[in-house]
Amino acid sequence: MQSVLITGGAGFIGQNLVHAWRAARPTDRLTVLDAMTYAANVRSLEPLIADRSIGFVKGDIGDAALMQRLFDQHKFSRVAHLAAESHVDRSISDPEAFLQTNVLGTFTLLKTALDHWRAAAKLDTARFLHVSTDEVYGSLGPADPAFTESSPYRPNSPYAASKASSDHLVRAFVATYGMPALITNCSNNYGPYQHPEKLIPLMIIHALEGKPLPIYGDGSNIRDWLHVSDHCSALMHVIEHGRTGETYNVGGRNERTNRYVVSLICDAIDAAFAADPALATRFPSCPAAAASSCRTLISYVTDRPGHDHRYAIDASKFVREFGRNFDVGFETGLPQTVQWYLDHEPWWRDVTSGAYKAWIEQNYGFRRAV
Ligand code: NAD
Ligand code: TYD
């Protein structure tokens, strides 16, 4: 039985990880710590909090006194560190928050865990998993080989730079203090509970509401999509069976252009409306409600500054060491994700009220059709 701290557990991947962990390792004690920024939502965790299957603390990883109190109280033996500012576009308009949480917050959490495990003589058995991104490696050209664990760090956005800094801190804590830490660098996730500021949910919701689908630049940028369920099972594997001090790349081998991804979303929505006439009543502004295609909403807009062209992950070290692969193919997982958003309208209506509207105005108000 482990006492597990999951930071950022009310975010997209965090919520999925909490549910996956609860199901796979029911005897572990889970504590979720989350600052409840705009990106957080505890609706899916409420039943687990209510029946005390998990503990929940609203707080900041940068609050050293709180971190120490939590370690003293719960004696964590596992930390899965996911708390972060995570959206590239926001890092362009407000980079400071990224340095505060991703760099300084990670430092405070690392130091608290190290001090606690040293004092308790637990450095041999405890594990700290730092969840990072492929964006630290920068951008690939069309013919470049996929990123491996030894690819050089070349971050291009403030988000990627802040995650790169935190990876370096973790590495330094391992080398200098013997911190029992591991790092995963994974590709773009998709699936249930993703915040609608990110590509896939944004496009699904805009299409349902009959709004333009704003593809940055010419849409030829490539991301390597990983279903969040595959990511969460990889994280649980790495924290238990990975070698401390190691980095593991995690990716779904699903390289797709943004243009293709948005077209596939449109086709999945069109097909769902054709199969279920009740959707036309729920979403009358969607072109599919009038037997037209959501593809008519596609609009190419001003590009993101410093927009990385291509990410691709070589996960062969993970596959070799753990004998596991990734199950969810993109052409299966994407229509399932569209269906999840169709089935969870109250969830995304809740998330897209209030401050979300101000973000849409800020990020898309200035973008012109190209
Ligand atoms: P998210 O933005 O959906 O969730 C992040 C969570 O962290 C939110 O609930 C937020 O409230 C919380 N948080 C932010 N600042 C905090 C602070 N100071 N203290 C405590 N909690 C705080 O992000 P996500 O997509 O779930 O990503 C989780 C992790 O995985 C991040 O570290 C991210 O860099 C990494 N990652 C994500 C992806 C992806 O495609 N989503 C890909 C690679 C790596
Ligand atoms: P995003 O979901 O923000 O993830 P990341 O930038 O971390 O990869 O974006 C995924 C891709 O989709 C990226 O190439 C930018 C692009 N994109 C658009 O074309 N339009 C949009 O409105 C958004 C949010 C993203």
In short:
With 370 residues, the protein is of the alpha/beta class.
Give a quick set of tags describing it.
370 residues, alpha/beta, seven-stranded parallel β-sheet, two-stranded parallel sheet, 13 strands, binds thymidine-5'-diphosphate
Commentary on this structure:
By secondary structure, the chain is of the alpha/beta class. The mean pLDDT is 96. The chain is built from 14 helices and 13 strands. Helix 1 (12-24) links the parallel strand 1 and strand 2. The strands form 4 sheets. The protein has a 7-stranded parallel beta sheet with strand order 3-2-1-4-5-6-11, with helices on both faces. Strands 7-10 form a two-stranded parallel ribbon. The protein has helices at 12-24, 46-50, 64-74, 88-93, 96-119, 158-177, 199-208, 228-241, 258-275, 278-282, 316-322, 330-343, 345-351, 355-364, and strands at residues 3-7, 29-34, 54-58, 78-81, 127-133, 181-186, 189-190, 213-216, 222-224, 226-227, 247-250, 255-257, 298-301. Helix content is 44%, strand content 15%. Nicotinamide-adenine-dinucleotide is lined by residues 7-8, 10-14, 33-37, 39-40, 60-62, 82-86, 101, 105, 131, 133, 163, 186, 188-189, 195. Thymidine-5'-diphosphate (TYD) binds at residues 88, 188, 198-199, 202, 214-216, 221, 223, 258, 304.
Write the layout of secondary structure elements.
Layout lengths: L2 E5 L4 H13 L4 E6 L11 H5 L3 E5 L5 H11 L3 E4 L6 H6 L2 H24 L7 E7 L24 H20 L3 E6 L2 E2 L8 H10 L4 E4 L5 E3 L1 E2 H14 L5 E4 L4 E3 H18 L2 H5 L15 E4 L14 H7 L7 H14 L1 H7 L3 H10 L6
Parallel strand pairs: 1-2, 1-4, 2-3, 4-5, 5-6, 6-11, 7-10, 8-13
Antiparallel strand pairs: 9-12
The site of thymidine-5'-diphosphate has 12 residues, from helix 7 and strand 8.
